[in-house]
């Protein structure tokens, strides 16, 4: 066993070795590794054994973590990883309702230590909880979380796949040969539309974090559907319709989902896209600056 395998990022390298040998792109290699590890970090039905924690309570806590992330100017990656850490811990341990916020803020602290250059101070995080918890409680829970998760923190996140799919979609952030084919004028033309639909896709992913319905989908599937939906809603360059089976298969293959470009996978993408459409329609206020009412 590798000495670095505790992070989870290095596992299944032997299984994906042939794919990595065929890939000269570092970004593509990271994508392959994260796709192979994705299922291992999926926290499906994390509330099944939580008698005191409901889907509504989880939604409120994640929404609060998203607001904290903005206030502290943390990356989207930190927020995604914090939710993943929290959900995976919920699978292993029963949590009392009055300690649920402590779990959320502790998960955020662990995530920022993994992602950010500087993590927030513990006193700062406790003050956001109205000092309802002590420093000792937070530190003890931090140790417990790390032990229960076996220090496996390198989870594939929405943020990672969003960056990857965005670079693959725009074209000028891929390999060198493609880069040479794109002029400065083309890049400027891409800049504003890309920024707009990437922001919308990020908002859709953010909303999905707080909705327990999406706990069953892998992050890569959610992000793929969010990108397609954002482009469709903004009517930018040619995104394939979500109800077109051939288009869905082509999109899956172009983003490195060759092994999932099956009828079942297309149904999964369609179902996830429909769920995201419903989510956006129920949260029009969160995206009203970018799209007009859909329904």
Number of helices: 14
Overall pLDDT = 79
Low-confidence stretches: 1-16, 171-190, 236-250
Category from helices, strands and their pairing: mainly alpha
Oligomeric state, counting identical vs distinct chains: single chain
Could you characterize the architecture of this molecule?
- The protein is an all-alpha fold and 295 residues long.
- The chain is 62% helix and 0% strand.
- The protein contains 14 helices and no strands.
- Helix 11 (219-234) packs across helix 13.
- The model is unreliable at 1-16, 171-190 and 236-250 (pLDDT under 50).
Topology record:
Layout: H1 17-21, H2 26-37, H3 55-71, H4 76-92, H5 100-115, H6 122-128, H7 135-148, H8 158-170, H9 176-181, H10 184-210, H11 219-234, H12 245-254, H13 263-282, H14 284-287
Helix pairs in contact: 3-4, 3-10, 4-5, 5-7, 8-10, 8-11, 10-11, 11-13, 12-13
């Amino acid at each position: 066993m590798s000495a670095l395998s505790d992070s989870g990022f290095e596992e299944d390298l032997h299984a994906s070795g042939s794919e990595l040998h065929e890939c000269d792109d570092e970004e593509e290699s990271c994508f392959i590794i994260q796709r192979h590890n994705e299922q291992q970090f999926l926290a499906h039905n994390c509330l099944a054994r939580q008698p005191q924690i409901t889907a509504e309570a989880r939604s409120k806590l994640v929404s609060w973590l998203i607001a904290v992330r903005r206030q502290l100017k943390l990356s989207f990656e930190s927020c995604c990883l914090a939710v993943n850490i929290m959900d995976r811990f919920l699978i292993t341990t029963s949590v009392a309702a009055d300690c649920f916020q402590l779990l959320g803020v502790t998960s955020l602290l662990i995530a920022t230590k993994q992602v950010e250059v500087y993590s927030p101070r513990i006193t700062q995080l406790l003050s956001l909880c109205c000092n309802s918890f002590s420093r000792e409680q937070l530190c003890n829970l931090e140790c417990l979380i790390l032990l229960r998760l076996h220090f496996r923190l390198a989870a594939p996140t929405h943020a990672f796949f969003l960056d990857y799919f965005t670079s693959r979609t725009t074209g000028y952030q891929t390999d060198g040969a493609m880069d040479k084919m794109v002029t400065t004028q083309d890049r400027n033309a891409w800049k504003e539309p890309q920024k707009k639909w990437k922001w919308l896709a990020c908002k859709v992913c953010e909303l999905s974090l707080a909705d327990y319905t999406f706990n069953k989908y892998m992050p890569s599937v959610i992000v793929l559907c969010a990108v397609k939906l954002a482009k469709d809603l903004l009517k930018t360059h040619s995104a394939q319709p979500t109800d077109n089976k051939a288009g869905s298969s082509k999109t899956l293959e172009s983003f490195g989902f060759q092994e999932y470009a099956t009828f079942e996978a297309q149904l999964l993408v369609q179902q996830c896209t429909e769920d995201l459409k419903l989510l956006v329609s129920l949260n029009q206020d969160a995206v009203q600056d970018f799209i007009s009412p859909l329904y």
